[in-house]
């Protein structure tokens, strides 16, 4: 079967595509699916992670995935296919690039699959170095941010069938924002939460997962700290936002007048696994300088 990507690919418009390839029993609709990129006009960072997650989900269910691109690609930084190529999306899923001179953009971390076991090294090396270079501040200033993203990997390890996350990030200097999109292709947060609270719908189950002290794990290791800590650090302390999509539920966490405002909604489209978008305010990140002590020798 052949499916067309939405012309504007965002975390809001992704459900049109997901519904076209996933049936009501939550299985792939066909054994071979061709994705038509010809009408794509815009894709945001979250769209790259979402596409990667969908491809990984399909491949793990034995589906052959193909990609259809226009014969003529208008190269340039504003072209969505160039953007995807620069992110290394096509190289990963068809084994080659599709534009003449693809290059990783300095404001992005290219698409990558990171396992929980490798997440500590990725966060401390790749992510911290990139973020430090983008903001012109020392790694010491990024400890809370690094810890917050680490909580997403803890969530993946606790709730996903496979402990791997698809990651893509971009810095928007003019907007003073960094968007980090991470997704896994597990069974989703709601299915785990319902083992403890079986009556909760998906959106309320996600909200429950963010409550401090709540955990769906029999082990006390996490103690419900993961998503709560992420939201506290990003929304309350940084003034940013956290958006979580899992199965049929969405939870958006933003700064309200009296603390964190959580908006839980139910969709008629299914997201396989869990998608988390973190929006950071770069102008709210404190620049902590490394001040070495000066010694005088007499």
From TrEMBL:
Keywords: Kinase, Transferase. The keyword Protease does not apply. SUPFAM superfamilies: ATPase domain of HSP90 chaperone/DNA topoisomerase II/histidine kinase, SpoIIaa-like. The keyword Kinase applies. One of its GO terms (molecular function) is kinase activity. This is Putative CheA signal transduction histidine kinase.
């Amino acid at each position: 079967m052949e499916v067309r990507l939405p012309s504007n690919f965002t975390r809001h418009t992704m459900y049109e595509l997901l519904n076209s390839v996933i049936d009501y029993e939550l299985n792939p609709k066909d054994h071979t699916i061709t994705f038509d990129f010809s009408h794509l006009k815009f894709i945001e960072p979250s769209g790259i992670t979402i596409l990667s997650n969908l491809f990984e989900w399909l491949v793990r269910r034995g589906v052959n995935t193909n990609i259809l691109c226009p014969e003529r690609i208008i190269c340039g930084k504003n072209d969505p296919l160039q953007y995807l190529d620069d992110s290394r999306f096509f190289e990963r899923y068809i084994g080659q690039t599709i534009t003449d001179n693809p290059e990783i953009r300095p404001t992005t971390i290219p698409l990558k699959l990171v396992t929980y076991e490798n997440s500590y090294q990725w966060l401390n090396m790749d992510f911290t170095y990139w973020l430090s270079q983008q903001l012109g501040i020392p790694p010491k200033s990024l400890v809370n941010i690094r810890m917050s993203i680490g909580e997403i990997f803890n969530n993946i390890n606790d709730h996903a069938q496979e402990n791997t996350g698809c990651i893509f990030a971009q810095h928007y200097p003019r907007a003073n924002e960094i968007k980090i999109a991470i997704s896994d292709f597990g069974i989703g947060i709601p299915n785990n939460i319902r083992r403890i609270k079986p009556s909760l719908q998906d959106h309320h189950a996600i909200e429950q997962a963010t409550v401090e002290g709540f955990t769906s794990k029999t082990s006390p290791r996490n103690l419900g700290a993961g998503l709560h800590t992420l939201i506290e650090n990003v929304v309350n302390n940084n003034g940013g936002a956290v958006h979580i999509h899992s199965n049929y539920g969405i939870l958006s966490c933003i700064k309200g007048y009296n603390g964190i405002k959580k908006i839980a909604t139910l969709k008629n489209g299914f997201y396989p696994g869990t998608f988390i978008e973190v929006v950071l305010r770069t102008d709210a990140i404190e620049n902590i300088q490394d001040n070495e002590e000066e010694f005088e020798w007499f």
